Amino acid sequence: MADFSKESCPSVKNILLLDSEGKRVAVKYFSDDWPTNASKLAYEKSVFTKTLKTNARTEGFVHDLHFFVTAGDDENELIIANVLQGFADSVGLLLRGDVEKRTALENLDLILLCIDEIIDGGIILETDAHTIAGKVATNAVDGSVPFSEQTISQALATAREHLARSLLK
């Protein structure tokens, strides 16, 4: 049996979703390269500024949102590009093509679930947009999720349902 280690799997350092001004919409870091929030914000601004000045790939830009996936120098660029494409496409599917900052913020729970389905601890799990969106949609619709594992919007919806039931009795 082959011996697999974390080092043998493709990994990413962070995944970023920034608005048209370079400000955070949704981000997740998987590396300790940026220990403080200030260093993370500075890094995000730096990445955003550098991509505006270059002919960076346009797949990471949808309407007024910018998608970024960064990794170490030794990672395969094609795999990282596939992660970027999967992230952008799955968010597009989940938001039904309305990929704008306002819609993204209204559905932030879905975007964060999307990131969790793509990457876990820096290890790439899935890159197919339809598979990712399907898993996220299933988790978002499934009412049998324990209250402690629900997102904030799911927990509020559950609380609203219980309150409505108790008032109707």
Describe this structure in words.
The protein has 169 residues and is an alpha+beta fold. Helices cover 49% and strands 14% of the residues. The chain has helices at 37-53, 77-94, 101-106, 108-118, 129-141, 152-168, and strands spanning 14-19, 24-29, 61-62, 65-70, 119-120, 123-124. Strands 2-1-4-3 form a 4-stranded antiparallel beta sheet, sandwiched between helices. A two-stranded antiparallel sheet has the order 5-6. β3 (61-62) and β4 (65-70) form a beta hairpin. It starts with 13 loop residues before the first strand and ends with a helix. The mean pLDDT is 83.
Give the % helix.
40-55%
Low-confidence stretches: none
Rounded radius of gyration (Å): 18 Å
Strand order of the largest sheet: 2-1-4-3
Q: What sequence of helices (H) and strands (E) makes up the elements?
A: EEHEEHHHEEHH
Write the topology of this structure:
Elements: E1 14-19, E2 24-29, H1 37-53, E3 61-62, E4 65-70, H2 77-94, H3 101-106, H4 108-118, E5 119-120, E6 123-124, H5 129-141, H6 152-168
Antiparallel strand pairs: 1-2, 1-4, 3-4, 5-6
Structure summary:
The protein has 6 helices and 6 strands, in the order ββαββαααββαα. The protein is an alpha+beta fold and 169 residues long.
Which key phrases capture this entry?
single chain; 169 residues; alpha+beta; two-stranded antiparallel sheet; 14% strand
